[in-house]
Amino acid sequence: MHNLDKIEFRRKSSTVRKIRGVLHHVVLVLLAIIWIFPVYVLVVDSLKTTGSVLTTPILVPASATLHSIITVFEALITQFFNSVVIAISTAVISTFIGAMAAYYFYRISSRINDVIFTVIAIATFIPFEVTSVPLDKLLIEIGLFNSIPGLIFSFLIFYLPTGALLMSIFLAVLPKSTIESARIDGANDWTIFSKVVIPLTYPGLISTFIFIMIETWNNFFLPLVATSTPSVSTISLSLLSYTGGYGVLYNDSFAAALIASIFPLVVFILLGRYFVKGLMAMGTGSKG
Questions:
Q1: Packing angle between helix 67-107 and helix 202-218, nearest 10 degrees?
Q2: Do 251 and 72 contact (CB within 8 A), yes or no?
Q3: Which residues cross the membrane (predicted)?
């Protein structure tokens, strides 16, 4: 009788596991559909002609043409590469300097450093809109208004604290015994940082890089207040030009949105596995 109870219990447990597995897959499929749906709309409607986009439902494909995508890309090519330069430069500098700052706070613990770190953490929550007027005045005074270096400088003001805050969380999971072992072997701070800290925290570095790069790429407000000509504008700001007060060319709007989403999507696909590893390390670090 006891053996029959065990068999029945195992059968019920197996059934529960199967049901849970099916439910998990259903949820994943639903999430995938939710994520793919806007991409599908962008692709389908950017391939339509001006006439077909007005006469066919938004979800129904029509005769495909690359005319809108090619035309829009030729119009946005300058802004596209401006965004690439600005986003990569901001992300690289913010991640590297943020990692150096995080290593400093990790190595030296004091009340003053705790206060400085708190200020850095608070700085990550300052809205862009609050600093628009002083930021414009600063850029004009140092001669960087309406320029690519000026935009990079503006983004660094906001994302350097973000890089330091994120990297400090990743460094929290790094055993201090590893650092002390390298120091006993005669390594200086730069050698420890470059040869020990960076290799051991590369998922965190890549996660921070991806996060800051995407945030910079999607940012609309800073290019709006820090530029005045299209030649130094970014693609996020240029998308506004495809929405007019008297009408909208929907196929061009969809094509512009599709082009604007390609670069961050490709970067995330190539580096996504490191981003996930970084998030896992962040969760472990936040618990410590």
A1: 130
A2: no
A3: 21-43, 84-106, 112-130, 151-172, 192-214, 254-276
Among 168, 156, 152, smallest CA distance to 116 is for 168
| Domain boundaries of the chain, sorted by first residue | 2-46, 76-287
- What letter does residue 60 receive in the DSSP assignment? S
Overall residue count recorded for the chain in this entry: 288
Per-10-residue mean pLDDT, the chain, length 288: 56 73 89 87 85 79 83 92 95 94 85 83 82 90 93 93 88 82 85 88 88 93 90 90 72 88 87 74 49
DSSP string, 208-269: HHHHHHHHHHH--HHHHHH--SGGG--HHHHGGGGS-SS---HHHHHHHHHHHHHHHHHHHH
How far is Cα 204 from Cα 279, in angstroms, rounded to an integer? 8
Which pLDDT value is given to residue 247?
64
* Cα-to-chain-centroid distance, residue 202: 16
Helix (H) or strand (E) holding 127: none
Full-model pTM: 0.83
Domain 76-287 of CATH type 2.60.370.10: no
